[in-house]
Amino acid sequence: MAKGCGMSKAVAIGIGVLTVSSVCGLVMMAVMYKIQIDKYPPRDPPIPTKPPVLPTGLPPNLRLPDNVIPESYKVFLQPYLYPAITNNYTNQSFAFTGNSTVRIKCMTDSKTIFLHVLDLNVTTVEVRKSDSNEKLSLSEYRIHQNESNFLEIQLKDKMSGNETYYDVFTKFEGELHNDLTGFYMSQYTEKVKDDEDQERFLATSLMKPTDARKVFPCFDEPALKAMFEITIIHRPDTNALSNTIGDPGTTEINGEEWIVTTFPKTPAMSTYLLAFTVSDFTFTQKSSGIKINVHARREAILAGYAEYALDVTEKILNHYQTIFELKHSVEKIDQIALPDISVGAMENWGLIAYQESGLLIDKATASTFDEEKVVTLIAHELAHLWFGNIVTMRWWNDLWLNEGFATFMSYFGVEADGWDLRDLIVLREIQTAFQADSFNSSQPLSMQENDIQTSSEIVGLFDDITHRKGAAVLRMLATFIGNENAFMKGIKAYLFKFQYQNAVHKDLWECLQQETTKDVEAFMSTWTETVGYPVVTIITQTGETTQEQFLLKQAWGHGIAWQVDIRYLASSDFVVKQDVLKVNGPVRRPHFEIEDKDEWLLANVNCTGFFRVNYDEENWNKLRMQLERNHHVIPLINRGQLIDDAFNLARAHRLNVTTALGLTKYLINDTEYFPWESALKNLDHLVLMFDRSEVYGPIMKYLRKQITILYEHFEEYTKNGTIPKKLTDQYNQVNAISVACSNGLSSCITMASSLFKDYRNGTNNIHPNLRSAIYCSAIASGDDDDWEFAWNEYQRATAPAEKDKLRYALSCTKEIWLLNRYLQYTLDPSKIRKTDMVSTINYIAKNVAGQPLAWDFVRGHWSYITQEYGAGVISLGSLLDAVTKRFSTDVELEEVRQLQREQDENNQGLAAQALEQVIERTEANIEWVKENKLLVKEWFIGEM
Ligand SMILES: *[C@@H]1O[C@H](CO)[C@@H](O)[C@H](O)[C@H]1NC(C)=O
Ligand SMILES: *[C@@H]1O[C@H](CO)[C@@H](O)[C@H](O)[C@H]1NC(C)=O
Ligand SMILES: *[C@@H]1O[C@H](CO)[C@@H](O)[C@H](O)[C@H]1NC(C)=O
Ligand SMILES: *[C@@H]1O[C@H](CO)[C@@H](O)[C@H](O)[C@H]1NC(C)=O
Ligand SMILES: *[C@@H]1O[C@H](CO)[C@@H](O)[C@H](O)[C@H]1NC(C)=O
Ligand SMILES: [Zn+2]
């Protein structure tokens, strides 16, 4: 998952971009290529020999044994589904049948073969010796009914372990469910004539991380790379896509006409990157060396929604080839926009799948942020071509190598299309990672291989830690090495050395070590193997400096020492200097000591280190006064980071909340997005804690006062229906409008209602950037007719981003009965698509009027939701996260505990970690609110 994903939830919601962390959680991708190297002669992908991993055996270990190694597969799949129900075909079928022959190399004399299989009826199993085709006698085969998903084949006689080849043939039957995992079915409507909609059906797949085993029996571990030769037999009027370029022909089976599409062999790749699609989609293409295709519903292609993606894909791909110096002679990159997919996007080899709003852009109605979402998502997925698809983590415990790199590199990738988002990585990824990593229940970036075994443990890794902390730590490493060229050189060596193979994080350290005299492993091991992150506390009177683990709940972790690379700045000379902290102290740092009464110290310049900083109250005050006097001397990123650190330190009882609040006062003089966004995110948390209490009145008043100047700063644009030039100004214009309107600034509400009225009367003059905020405000202050109008517009809209904006705006009403009705709609896929269910409920929960409704709704439908979203465990986490954000009372805590108990009874373990975090956060909130309510109230009253 990537961008669109990077934005904070507050902003994301503010601008109606669909970006719950789930979406980000899982983004992935791939492509089809042979590798070439600029400076070196091209070389063929190696045939897999012995896998680098030595898996350790049977249950309870759950890893495949290493007696046999897969080398290549021949797979036939025949889905029976029709693309539409017409007079010609009336009996829809969701069954599929198939067979697979996998060639294995036997490494040790043995009688057993273990593969993975799940939810398939395996009807035939045969094992033959490859050279003689002699059939071996089986004593039995059985499927283990436990989390191992093993298909165990027992032979009467031993296979010879002298690298002898055998062919394992299986025949199987399965069903395309509408569950968004494995090989699945998806239903959507297509306009066939102006007023006629027709139901359509397609089959598609999502294997990552462990669902290839649901499609055919296979060795479903990332290190067991093999070559795949796929054949898909499908109905006329459909086309089939897979990882390589398909060649369709026709055939007759039992008197029926079928299309047989054969796909040439892939290079050696992991099973999780396989993909199959059968649909009646069309596509648009660009061919300048590499064939780039974008596939989507016919309507979307005809409307030109795929053009933007087509254009940027080429640019980004070329850019990556230049910076990685590892060139693809890519055969093709298919990208497909799916009506239903449980992740933002998936980097399948040669066939990248996206949510529609992650790939399609309607130039007429898209906001800058919609485009940014698409371009960053594509950049993330294309980065996976290198990081993940050709160099793959050895086991899921190092998933961050895939996701951290893809997230980090996407910020470089988008530059190919003129986007300068580099500083935004701090807001989008790093501040979010700080949040996720502030809990006792967090996990280290790199887990032990043996700690990750079951599919649900693997799925649980697709979170903000692997994606965002992964990216944050890579950015820190680049700064630590100190020379961007040296860093990139090490990365290039890593890619070259491990292409078509698997790697562990130590391999990366070794490649980077070649480029620097600093000890990379000693530095990085403290960041990847330790849970959490530090706060560095500096007492500027004495220079005394300590580091401790930052945790929101009070039990702070002592005794852990990160290697903290501190870049700092003092007002005495404004020169950035460097220091390294290796012990958990306290240690005295004379250079942090400040004698002059007016001087201040600022550490972690540009937030390049993944840590927070705390100071003595006096230094905080001096920093605040500097901001009020002349904020420009404090680097922009730090103006935001100071606010983020202060509020979080206050949440963790390490700083007075009034000190944090004090830092927001200077904002009347600052129009930059960075500090504003940091402040709004944190004030948003305060609002969540208090918007059901009497403290809310004074908070609203303060927010209204602070935002007025920003609102007026952009008012000229807003009035004219135009937008500022600079991207971050565009973001801040939206912040100004949504905060002003939602905190009762009457000129804002009037403006929004009047523009919405024009829209209802037939002219929508609202600039696409402002639509989310303005629709939302108008619906919040409007009546049920306004809501109905937006609902109809939502159903009518064809551009995915416009649909999302309306879907968000519908959650803004204050009418309980409308919100309840809307919640009910989320269970009806003909009204709210499955893909959109979680984010819709999250939007409703964000609305103070919708919060209790959403929570009751989720609790009430928990078993239904968990069943329908089997693989959407990640979405479940973000759903729980969102509907409990405000929780800060004992009653609410008890309700979550109750859900956790029921969950344990059913032994589902779904979203278990998310529940842990919710409980931890709620406990922290309860404590914090008790302690701070009065202080907060008094501070805000004092500002009135
Ligand atoms: C249905 O069959 C008729 C006659 O075989 C053919 O002309 C028509 O195109 C078919 N319609 C569809 C939607 O396949
Ligand atoms: C596998 O299935 C395909 C398509 O149905 C069929 O043509 C082929 O003969 C099958 N292979 C074997 C070994 O049965
Ligand atoms: C194993 O293979 C090697 C090389 O092919 C051969 O020299 C040796 O005799 C074989 N051993 C057995 C037990 O088949
Ligand atoms: C699998 O086998 C069971 C039991 O025979 C049967 O009920 C089910 O329909 C089969 N599933 C498929 C997809 O063929
Ligand atoms: C901090 O970031 C800004 C903006 O990206 C950059 O111009 C500046 O050089 C950076 N400062 C340091 C010390 O890296
Ligand atoms: Zn990804």
TrEMBL record:
Coiled coil: none annotated. The chain crosses the membrane at residues 12-33. This is Aminopeptidase. InterPro entries: Aminopeptidase_N-like_N, Aminopeptidase_N-like_N_sf, ERAP1-like_C_dom, M1_APN-typ, Peptidase_M1, Peptidase_M1_aminopeptidases, Peptidase_M1_dom, Peptidase_M4/M1_CTD_sf. Keywords: Aminopeptidase, Hydrolase, Membrane, Metal-binding, Metalloprotease, Protease, Transmembrane, Transmembrane helix, Zinc. The keyword Metal-binding applies. Binds 1 zinc ion per subunit. Residues 600-923 form the ERAP1-like C-terminal domain. Residues 308-527 form the Peptidase M1 membrane alanine aminopeptidase domain. Its EC number is 3.4.11.-. Residues 70-273 form the Aminopeptidase N-like N-terminal domain. Belongs to the peptidase M1 family. Its cofactor is Zn(2+). PANTHER family: AMINOPEPTIDASE, PROTEASE M1 ZINC METALLOPROTEASE.
